[in-house]
Specification:
Oligomer: heterodimer
Largest sheet of chain B: 7 strands, mixed
Shape of chain B: globular
Distance between the termini of chain A: 35 Å
Strand content of chain B: over 45%
Radius of gyration of chain A: 13 Å
Strand content of chain A: over 45%
Helix content of chain B: under 10%
C-alpha cells in the first residue's frame, strides 16, 4: 500500500497570502495524484487531478505541481472561502490511498 | 448535473451489517464510470473503501476486504455498500462518489455523506 504523507498538519495563513501544501508518496505515483478540499458539513470537492490539472470550475489561484513522490498544492492568494482541510489522493496503484490532510486556518 | 445521495440507517449495532445505498441522478450508471465509497471516521482523514465498475467489476480496500460487498443495480440507478461484522471503528461519515476509471480513479462527484454510528 502506498502511504501518502501530508505536511504540515495545520497551516496558519492570513487572507491574501500564499499557502503551500505538501504531499509525499512512499513510492512513485507518477502524476496520478488528486487534491480535494473539504469544508465542515460538506462533501469533498475535487480541485486538481493529474497532479496539475484544475478540475472544472476551480479558480486559477489553485495550482498543483510535482510528480513521482513529491507534490505541492499552492493557493496563490487565500480567500475567506479557502479555509478548509485539503487532502491528496494517489490513484496510481490499488488500493487508492489518501493523505492525512492539511488544515488551512486563519492566522 | 450529476448528483449522488447516500441513504441508510444512521445507527447500526456492533457485529451487525452496515448497509448503505447511493442513488445517482443526472447520469445513467450503466453507461460508464466507476462508483465508489469513501469514509471519514470522527477526527480522522479520508479512507477509501471500494469501487465498482458499471459492469460489476470491483476493487476493495485490503484492510476491509473480507467484510465488504459493493453491488450495483442499474435498473434503479443505484449502487450499494454492505460492511459486515461492524465495530465502533466503523463509525464514520460514509460518502459515495464517482470516479472516471480507466486509470483515472479520482472522484469528481460526491454525495453529501451520511453519518453511521456503530453502537454496542
Amino acid at each position: 500500500e502506498i502511504v501518502m504523507t501530508q505536511s504540515p498538519a495545520t497551516l496558519s495563513v492570513s487572507p491574501g497570502e500564499r499557502a503551500t501544501l505538501s504531499c509525499r508518496a512512499s513510492q512513485s505515483v507518477s502524476s496520478n495524484l488528486a487534491w480535494y478540499q473539504r469544508k465542515p458539513g460538506q462533501a469533498p470537492r475535487l480541485l486538481i487531478y493529474g497532479a496539475s490539472t484544475r478540475a472544472t470550475g476551480i479558480p486559477a489561484r489553485f495550482s498543483g505541481s510535482g510528480s513521482g513522490t513529491e507534490f505541492t498544492l499552492t493557493i496563490s492568494s487565500l480567500q475567506s472561502e479557502d479555509f478548509a482541510i485539503y487532502y491528496c489522493q494517489q490513484y496510481n496503484n490499488w488500493p487508492l490511498t489518501f493523505g492525512g490532510g492539511t488544515k488551512v486556518e486563519i492566522k | 448535473q450529476v448528483q449522488l445521495q447516500e441513504s441508510g440507517p444512521g445507527l447500526v449495532k456492533s457485529s451487525e451489517t452496515l448497509s448503505l445505498t447511493c442513488t445517482v441522478s443526472g447520469y445513467s450508471i450503466s453507461s460508464d464510470y466507476y462508483w465508489g465509497w469513501v469514509r471519514q471516521p470522527p477526527g480522522k482523514g479520508l479512507e477509501w473503501i471500494g469501487i465498482i465498475y458499471h459492469s460489476g467489476g470491483t476493487h476493495y480496500s485490503p484492510s476491509l476486504k473480507t467484510g465488504i460487498i459493493i453491488s450495483i443495480d442499474t435498473s434503479k440507478n443505484q449502487f450499494s455498500l454492505k460492511l459486515s461484522s461492524v465495530t465502533a471503528a466503523d463509525t464514520a461519515i460514509y460518502y459515495c462518489a464517482r470516479a472516471l476509471g480507466s486509470g483515472t480513479y479520482f472522484f469528481d462527484y460526491w454525495g453529501q455523506g451520511t453519518l453511521v454510528t456503530v453502537s454496542s
